[in-house]
Design brief:
single chain; 315 residues; alpha/beta; 2 domains; six-stranded mixed beta sheet; two-stranded antiparallel sheet; 8 helices; 10 strands
Length: 315
């Protein structure tokens, strides 16, 4: 071998450690940790890189009042790989049901101040799934306290801010407080768009629901016209959109208003009709709408009054 030339020893490739995070099914992640990680962080893969910055400690008891306390990325169950199958004691179940629900209400309020509606719903359910009894208690609070927003415009349907390609039965039917925002489109001949079919379909899925609150917010280009024809069209198509909700049968509190985007104008439909035109026909249509609205609200409340409020709204 010529002098000055030496064979360098092949560098031994360093095997990166396994990702220390858990998957959504609470199984160990099979990926390898990334080579770069934040200071004081845990070895995690690229998919779980944010979890590596939130450190928790395994709470598995080892006997003699000792705990495992191994550093792990934060999860709801707070157990390492070794103790993943261990069932931790659930101290909250020792509290009375009323106190547990107050705690869940406080957590839900904190989530609503930090997340959008859909992520509040998703994150709260994720925590509730830790225990069957907790799930029943927490979801009871969730579906009573969280308002489900449903937006309809043309063929588009959004529930909790998420677009739905088709209206099917689901957990949205369990909500006890619903807010509908209807962007109504009607041509000059009075023909309705596809939104009316979606309203009828949603109302059929909610048939027999035990609602606490129902709020319907209406928006249409016709609300911006200041002539009697627009008042006439609004008066004619409103019953078509409100009548499907009669089959709900059990509503404790309900209201119908105009879109808040109409700044400077009253959100009450009756006053809007009177402001748009001062002639006698417009005033007559406003009175006709008032009679219809009173009859519509009484129809929805009648079943609760007959059965008694206590029985109608017990959970």
């Amino acid at each position: 071998m010529p002098r000055g030339k030496r064979h360098s020893k092949p560098a031994r490739k360093k095997i990166r450690p396994q990702c220390s995070a858990l998957t959504r099914s609470y199984d160990a992640c099979k990926n390898r940790a990334t080579s770069s990680r934040a200071r004081q962080g845990l070895p995690v893969c690229w998919s779980h890189r944010k979890l590596g910055l939130s450190v928790a400690f395994c709470q598995a008891p080892l006997g003699g009042s000792r705990k495992c306390l191994k550093k792990i990325p934060w999860t709801e169950i707070q157990l390492c790989f070794k103790h993943i199958e261990l069932a931790l004691p659930c101290y909250i179940l020792r509290l009375p049901l009323e106190l547990r629900q107050q705690i869940f209400s406080y957590i839900l309020n904190e989530y609503q101040s930090s997340y959008a509606k859909f992520y509040t719903y998703y994150s709260f359910l994720k925590v509730a799934r830790l225990n069957r009894q907790i799930f029943e208690d927490a979801t009871d609070v969730l579906y009573r306290k969280l308002v489900c927003d449903i937006f309809l415009s043309g063929k588009d349907v959004y529930i909790l801010g998420r677009k739905c390609h088709s209206i099917q039965t689901g957990s949205w039917q369990r909500f006890k407080q619903l807010t509908f925002q209807l962007n109504i489109s009607v041509d000059h001949s009075g023909r309705h768009g596809p939104i009316l079919e979606n309203v009828q379909l949603i109302a059929s899925h909610l048939q027999g629901s035990n609602l606490i609150k129902l709020h319907i917010c209406l928006d249409s280009v016709w609300f911006w016209y200041t002539r009697r024809r627009s008042v006439e069209l609004i008066r004619n198509f409103l019953p078509s959109y409100l009548d499907p909700f009669r089959q709900l049968g059990r509503v404790r509190e309900l209201s119908v208003a105009l879109s808040p985007k109409m700044s400077g104008r009253s959100n009450e439909i009756e006053l809007w009709m009177e402001d748009m035109s001062n002639d006698s026909e417009a005033m007559a249509m406003a009175m006709e709408w008032k009679r219809y609205y009173e009859e519509w609200t009484e129809n929805l409340k009648r079943e609760c009054l007959e059965k008694g409020v206590g029985k109608c709204f017990e959970f």
